Structure formats: structure tokens, C-alpha cells
């Protein structure tokens, strides 16, 4: 079920009304679980089995970690994490590995190639891992506070944590220690209406007006259409895709955060104006980057084991992070590309006396944006030969006629992404603050454009991950 | 830990939502007036997918010219503009095929007297979600009764159209290095040659032709005349195994004695933009000989 479908709005309305009925106070968690399972099963009910299997493993393993024999904690946590990873590997990476090592000629290869990718598996698997690691480590919190003594209550809480519909299929990736302590009775009067309204409105605008319109122009990036586009057109297409993927995913995240708040749950921000960032990964898909930092980079040794290991850890973390996005080698290359850039940046900081003055920090921001935008081509064109072909066309097609229609529309639909980032830069200015008083004009315009200028419906890009 | 935003108690003194809705209503009213009085006859398709949707929904709603002669085709015939073929409603869809157009005609109240059916991309399957999109209740009925909510009246399209008219004075701005253009064209043509080098699988071709025949029978029984036509493509592809097999398949399933065919004149050669699509100039050249 998509956030931009009418059936979802119906489910949301029914759930919301029931949720805040005075007599439902003790049934809020089961109600949210039921609504989430309907949301997940709507397109393919069989997928529920996998979701429930994954949740069961995590419920039992985490319960055993907290209340089992202390000497078995490590074994249980490790086994739970391994099962989670095996499930993810089987459903997500079998086709990739079968294609690479077995081929379509063998019966096993054919079987593995046909395994469907269950929607949201990358997200709920990581959340299960977070629960197991958090309960095992128990550093920042009391294990018993995270996992109640009653197994059925723990099962309910964990199932809600994993399946809560705003984040179920495309994140943000939640951490157990952030979410579980929030599970308690919620009241209508606690809803932060203004915040919910602004987040949901902005999210839907980014998705329906910006991303859905841009996608019908960035379609021309596909092979073989890029062959006869001019250099300028190809550059603008890439810029458009960069804005599309931001609007699509940041839009989804904002809707998810807003909807969660509607039911009394707070998710951390998933995007923090990443296209003006000097450090992209601190502001893009924050829930994934912080997960990788917390559960992969630091356990690998982080920056504590010398310079070389730091660079290597960065590259490994980003390479695996890239592969998390999809079962194609181009995603791994994309991750390695980012890992290499981070390692080079760190090397330059440590080994050269050059420091960019604060007044010229925009140079670094522009550089980061250009590199990130070039990297998105690996997302759009999973075949590496096509990526090379695209860049070759960019180099050679300087003399071709520009497609002014495509260029004009892409710049028009990409402009809200740049204005959105510009608003962030203006928040420190006094006149920028004064303008805040009139922000309802902007929100009114966004709502007007959602009604009159939405693009053709498209699924969210991150659903495929 | 989770950063907690201060919780506010919702009350109707909280103005931001009310003011936003008020501004939206003002903008909607203003835009409705603008569409009603300034852009009543303006329809802008921002991209080809939207062009398909506008065309299909206008036909379904009976807004477009409901001529008695309807053309069904792919992006090859999409290049005919409304004034190129007077008296013909062109339901050709870019990136789609004749089965999408047929589904639209079958579901619509407007039954044509004559159907012109493009032969070139017969094997392209119908778009699974397109008809659902055309008849999606919210967009269908709001579009029917509120003109400003039609795809062709989107503010971005109207704005860009007006700005381009103002900036270019109606002239298209192009800059092309002939050598580079020819090089890019040859690359695409090579790909097309590979696509056309092999005849389609016989089973698949026969099944598709049979399906087409079944679908056309219903229309024929209600008195509709069927005409098949082939869009001109680059001469190197015109007699390729793929094109020949398709032509023969049509002539076997729909014999020339019973059905009328329009083939491009052999004496006219079309360079095309990519091997299969005519340039605007070539379209204008071809409409002069497109007779039935």
C-alpha cells in the first residue's frame, strides 16, 4: 500500500479515529499492529508470513538474551543476528549470487533467480538486529525496561516496533532503544498538530509535485535514450534525478515522521538538508548512516586502529551500505565510491596543511553535491556499461541540439529542492525569521500545487530496497 | 536518545492550519478564474506520458474531438499533431501500443466508424496500469467537472508554455553540430538494426495477431471499418526480417482483399530521428501522401 493511494488514506482515517476513542486506550498497540499488518499484506498477503517469522525470531531471541541464562546471552544474540542476516541474504542477494556464480542453466540457479524480493525486508531486518544488539549490550538503558517480563507483552511491543506502518516499508530505520521506551498510552491532546501538518504537507509536496513530475523527465536517462541527448541536457537530467531521489525519499520520510507523530511516536529526522552538506552522510538517510556507524563501523574498529584501518573500515562500511540498497553490483560500486571519497577526504584532512577558510566553505559543499549527483547515476543505471556510456555521451555530445523543453521543466520542478535548502540557510538571518510569520503563504501554495499539479503516481524509489 | 519536540495542545486558535487552508482556497479560486477566462482553450502536455493521459482521458470524457475516424498507434504515430490529419482523432500513445488505444475505444461510449491501426509496433503489450489511471475516480470526475484540475491545465505547464512563447516568440531554439548529430544517430540506428535483424517468434506473433483479430471482431460487428497502416521508418529497417515478418503476418491474418492497407510509398525515403521516428518535417511530408 502506498502513502499516495486513496486506500491508504482510508486505512489511516479509520485507524486514527479508533485509536483515540476513550475506550480504546488499552487496545492502541494491538490496533496499530492490526492496521500495520493490513498495510503490509495489502498487495501480497503471503509476505506477512515472512514478516511474522522475522518478528518471532527477534522476539524470542531478545527475550532469551534478557531473561535467559547469562552465559547464553552472547550465543542467543549472535544466533538471532545471523538468522536475520541469512533471511536477508536469501531473499535479497540470492538472485545476485546465483546470477554471478551459478547461472541460469542450473536448476538451483534458476530457482534462486526467481525468488521475489519482499518489500521492506532490508528495513525490518535491520530493526530486528538493532533490538538484539541493544538488548545484548544494554549500555544506555536498562534491559528490563526495554524487554518486559511478560513474553506476550514483549511480543506485542516488538511486533509494533518492527511493523509500525509509517516506517515499515521504507524507513526511517528505527533503533530499539529509541522506539520501545515510547510505547505507552497516547492521548488526542498530545498530538503536535502544527508539526504533523507541516511535515505531512511538505512530504506529500516533495513526493507528489516534485518527485513524481521529475520522474517523467528523468526517464530519458535510461539506455539507449541518452545516446542522442546533448551534453547540457544530460547534465540537467542528472541534476533532475538528484533532486528527484531527494524529494522522493525525503518526502517519504517526512510523511512517515508526521504520521508517526499523529499516533504519538517520534522518529528522528532522516534528512537534514543534505545537498548543502560538507559531510553528506551526516545528513542523508541519517537512520541508515547512524545504524551503519553504530552497528558496523564502530564494531569494525572505527578510527581506533590506525589510519589504514580507518580508511579500510570506511570503505567496507560504505560498500556494504551500498549493497544494502539493492542486489546489484552497481550499488556496491556506488557504496565503494562514497567510501573511497570519505577515505580520501580523511586522508587530506590528516596529511595536508590545506584548510578551506570558512568563507569559502561553499566550494566544498558544491564539490560534495557534484560528486553525490554523479554517484546517483549508478542508482539509475544498474548496468555499469550504461553508466560509462552516459558519461561518454556527456563528453561527446556537445554539438547536439539541447532539449530545451526537458531542461526547462527539470529546472522548474527541481527548484523547490533548492529553495527548501535555501530556507535552511536563511533561518539564521533576522529577516529570514521575520518571514517565518508569513510561512502559511508558502504552505498554502504547496497545498494548492498538490491539488492542481501532482505528477502521475509512482511508487517510492526506496521501496525496492 | 530521541529528541522530543514540545507537545502542543491542538486547539482552533492554532492558526497555521487555518491560514494555510484559507490561502489555498484563495489560490484555487484565482486559478479557476484564470483558467476559465484566459486559458480556456489552452492544453499543455509537459511530457509524452502526460500527453498520453490527456489524450486518453479527454477521449474517455468526450472532451476531445470525437471524430468518427480514430487512429491507434505508438510513438511513431504520436508524432502526428492534431491539425496534421483533419477529421481524425489520434489516440496513438508514446511508449505504448495499439492495444492500449483499443482498450480505450472498447470502454468508451464513442464508437468510431473507421479505425486506423498502426502495424509497426504490434507486439508491444498493453500498459497494465494505464486504463486504471485514465478511469481513476478522483482524477476522472474532478477533471470532468472542474477544468482547472485536468492534466493539461496544470499551473507548471501553463506557466512554462506562456514563458516559452514570450521568450522565444514561438520559434524553437536549436543548435546542432551535424557531425555529432550524425554520429549519435548512427549509434542509435545500429541498435535498431540489431532489434530488427531477427524476425519475431512465430508463436508470439500469431498469438498477438489472433488477439487483435478477436478484439477487432466486436468493433467490426458494430459496423466499424478497419484500415491498417505502416509508418515509414529508415530505409535500412524497412525490409528487415522483423518488419517483413510483421507485414506478412498481418496480410495472412487480415487478407488484403478484405481489409484496406496503407503502406509508405517506396519512392519516399525517410531518414528519421532515430531509425523509427519521423522528424517534424518528415511528418508534414508524409501526411501529404497519407490517404485512404
What does this structure look like?
The complex is a heterodimer of chains A (465) and B (292). With 465 residues, chain A is mostly helical. In chain A, 68% of the residues lie in helices and 0% in strands. The mean pLDDT of chain A is 89. With 292 residues, chain B is an alpha/beta fold. Chain B is built from twelve helices and five strands. Chain B has a five-stranded parallel beta sheet with strand order 2-1-3-4-5. In chain B, helix 9 packs across helix 11. Chain B is globular, with a radius of gyration of 24 Å. Chains A and B meet through helix 11, helix 19 and helix 21 of A and helix 1, helix 2, helix 7 and helix 8 of B.
Draw up the topology in text:
The complex is a heterodimer of chains A (465) and B (292).
Chain A: H1 6-19, H2 28-41, H3 47-67, H4 73-102, H5 107-113, H6 121-137, H7 143-146, H8 151-163, H9 165-168, H10 176-179, H11 193-218, H12 231-262, H13 286-297, H14 307-325, H15 329-351, H16 361-375, H17 377-380, H18 384-396, H19 404-426, H20 430-435, H21 439-453
Helix pairs in contact in A: 1-2, 2-8, 3-4, 3-6, 3-8, 4-5, 4-6, 6-8, 11-12, 11-19, 11-21, 12-18, 12-19, 13-14, 14-15
Chain B: H1 15-37, H2 48-61, E1 69-72, H3 75-78, E2 88-90, H4 98-107, E3 114-118, H5 130-134, H6 137-145, H7 155-168, H8 178-196, H9 202-221, E4 225-229, H10 235-238, H11 241-253, E5 260-262, H12 280-287
Parallel strand pairs in B: 1-2, 1-3, 3-4, 4-5
Defining traits:
heterodimer; A: 465 residues; mainly alpha; 2 domains; 21 helices; globular; B: 292 residues; alpha/beta; Rossmann fold; 5-stranded parallel beta sheet; 12 helices; 5 strands; 49% helix; disordered N terminus
Rg result of chain A: 23 Å
Strand content of chain A: under 5%
What portion of the residues of chain B fall into strands of 2 or more residues?
5-15%
Q: What ranges of chain A have pLDDT less than 50 throughout 5 or more consecutive residues?
A: none
- CATH topology-level fold name of the domain at 66-127 and 178-287 in chain B: Rossmann fold
Largest interface chains and counts? A-B, 53 and 59 residues
CATH superfamily of the domain at 66-127 and 178-287 in chain B: SGNH hydrolase
Assembly category: heterodimer
Work out the radius of gyration of chain B: 24 Å
Biggest sheet character of chain A: none
Tell me the series of helices and strands of chain A, N- to C-terminal. HHHHHHHHHHHHHHHHHHHHH
Category by helix and strand content of chain B: alpha/beta
Amino acid at each position: 500500500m502506498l502513502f499516495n493511494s486513496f486506500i491508504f488514506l482510508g486505512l489511516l482515517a479509520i485507524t486514527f479515529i479508533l485509536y483515540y476513542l476513550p475506550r480504546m486506550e488499552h487496545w492502541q498497540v494491538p490496533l496499530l499492529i492490526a492496521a500495520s499488518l493490513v498495510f503490509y499484506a495489502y498487495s501480497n498477503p503471503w509476505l506477512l508470513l515472512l514478516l511474522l517469522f522475522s518478528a518471532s525470531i527477534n522476539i524470542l531471541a531478545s527475550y532469551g538474551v534478557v531473561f535467559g541464562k547469562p552465559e547464553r546471552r552472547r550465543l542467543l544474540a549472535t544466533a538471532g543476528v545471523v538468522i536475520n542476516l541469512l533471511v536477508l541474504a536469501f531473499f535479497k542477494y540470492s538472485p545476485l549470487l546465483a546470477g554471478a556464480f551459478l547461472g541460469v542453466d542450473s536448476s538451483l540457479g534458476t530457482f534462486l533467480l526467481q525468488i521475489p524480493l519482499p518489500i521492506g525486508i532490508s528495513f525490518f531486518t535491520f530493526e530486528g538486529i538493532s533490538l538484539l544488539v541493544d538488548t545484548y549490550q544494554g549500555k544506555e538503558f536498562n534491559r528490563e525496561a526495554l524487554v518486559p517480563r511478560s513474553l506476550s507483552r514483549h511480543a506485542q511491543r516488538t511486533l509494533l516496533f518492527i511493523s509500525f506502518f509509517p516506517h515499515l516499508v521504507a524507513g526511517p530505520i528505527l533503533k530499539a532503544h529509541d522506539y520501545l521506551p515510547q510505547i505507552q498510552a497516547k492521548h488526542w491532546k498530545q498530538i503536535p498538530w502544527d508539526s504533523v501538518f507541516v511535515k505531512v504537507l511538505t512530504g506529500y509536496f516533495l513526493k507528489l509535485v516534485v518527485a513524481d513530475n521529475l520522474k517523467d523527465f528523468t526517464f530519458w536517462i535510461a539506455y539507449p535514450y541518452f545516446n542522442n541527448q546533448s551534453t547540457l541536457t544530460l547534465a540537467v537530467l542528472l541534476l533532475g534525478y538528484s533532486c528527484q531521489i531527494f524529494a522522493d525519499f525525503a518526502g517519504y520520510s517526512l510523511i512517515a515522521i508526521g504520521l508517526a507523530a499523529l499516533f504519538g511516536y517520534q522518529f528522528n529526522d532522516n534528512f537534514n538538508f543534505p545537498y548543502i552538506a560538507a559531510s553528506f552522510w551526516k545528513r542523508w538517510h541519517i537512520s541508515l548512516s547512524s545504524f551503519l556507524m553504530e552497528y558496523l563501523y564502530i564494531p569494525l574498529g572505527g578510527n581506533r586502529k590506525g589510519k589504514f584501518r580507518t580508511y579500510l573500515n570506511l570503505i567496507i562500511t560504505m560498500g556494504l551500505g551500498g549493497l544494502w540498497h539493492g542486489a546489484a553490483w552497481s550499488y556496491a560500486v556506488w557504496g565503494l565510491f562514497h567510501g573511497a571519497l570519505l577515505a580520501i577526504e580523511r586522508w587530506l584532512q590528516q596529511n595536508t596543511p590545506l584548510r578551506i577558510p570558512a568563507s569559502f566553505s561553499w566550494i566544498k559543499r558544491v564539490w560534495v553535491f557534484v560528486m553525490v549527483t554523479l554517484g546517483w547515476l549508478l542508482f539509475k543505471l544498474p548496468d555499469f556499461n550504461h553508466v560509462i556510456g552516459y558519461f561518454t555521451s556527456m563528453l561527446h555530445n556537445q554539438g547536439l541540439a539541447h532539449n530545451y523543453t526537458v531542461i526547462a521543466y527539470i529546472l522548474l520542478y527541481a527548484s523547490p529542492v533548492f529553495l527548501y535548502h535555501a530556507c535552511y540557510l536563511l533561518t539564521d538571518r533576522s529577516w529570514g525569521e521575520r518571514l517565518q510569520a508569513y510561512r502559511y503563504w508558502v504552505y498554502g501554495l504547496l497545498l494548492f500545487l498538490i491539488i492542481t499539479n501532482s505528477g502521475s503516481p509512482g511508487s517510492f524509489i526506496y521501496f525496492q530496497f | 536518545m530521541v529528541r522530543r519536540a514540545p507537545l502542543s495542545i491542538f486547539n482552533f486558535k492554532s492558526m497555521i492550519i487555518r491560514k494555510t487552508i484559507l490561502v489555498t482556497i484563495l489560490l484555487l479560486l484565482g486559478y479557476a478564474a484564470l483558467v476559465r477566462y484566459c486559458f480556456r482553450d489552452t492544453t499543455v502536455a509537459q511530457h509524452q506520458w502526460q500527453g498520453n493521459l490527456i489524450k486518453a482521458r479527454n477521449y474517455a470524457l468526450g472532451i476531445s474531438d470525437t471524430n468518427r475516424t480514430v487512429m491507434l498507434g505508438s510513438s511513431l504515430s504520436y508524432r502526428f499533431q492534431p491539425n496534421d490529419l483533419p477529421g481524425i482523432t489520434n489516440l496513438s500513445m508514446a511508449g505504448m501500443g495499439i492495444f492500449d488505444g483499443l482498450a480505450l475505444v472498447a470502454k468508451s461510449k464513442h464508437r468510431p466508424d473507421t479505425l486506423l491501426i498502426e502495424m509497426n509496433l504490434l507486439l508491444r503489450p498493453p500498459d497494465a496500469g494505464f486504463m486504471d489511471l485514465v478511469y481513476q475516480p478522483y482524477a476522472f470526475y474532478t477533471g470532468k467537472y472542474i477544468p482547472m484540475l485536468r492534466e493539461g491545465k496544470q499551473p507548471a505547464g501553463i506557466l512554462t508554455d506562456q514563458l516559452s512563447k514570450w521568450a522565444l516568440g514561438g520559434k524553437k531554439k536549436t543548435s546542432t553540430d551535424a557531425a555529432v548529430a550524425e554520429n549519435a544517430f548512427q549509434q542509435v540506428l545500429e541498435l535498431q538494426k540489431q532489434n530488427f535483424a531477427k524476425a519475431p517468434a512465430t508463436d508470439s506473433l500469431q498469438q498477438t495477431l489472433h488477439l487483435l483479430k478477436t478484439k477487432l471482431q466486436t468493433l467490426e460487428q458494430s459496423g466499424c471499418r478497419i484500415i491498417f497502416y505502416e509508418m515509414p521508418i529508415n530505409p535500412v529497417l524497412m525490409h528487415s526480417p522483423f518488419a517483413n515478418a510483421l507485414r506478412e503476418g498481418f496480410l495472412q491474418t487480415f487478407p488484403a482483399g478484405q481489409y484496406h492497407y496503407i503502406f509508405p510509398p517506396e519512392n519516399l525515403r525517410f531518414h528519421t530521428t532515430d531509425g523509427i521516428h519521423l522528424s517534424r518535417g518528415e511528418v508534414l511530408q508524409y501526411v501529404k501522401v497519407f490517404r485512404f
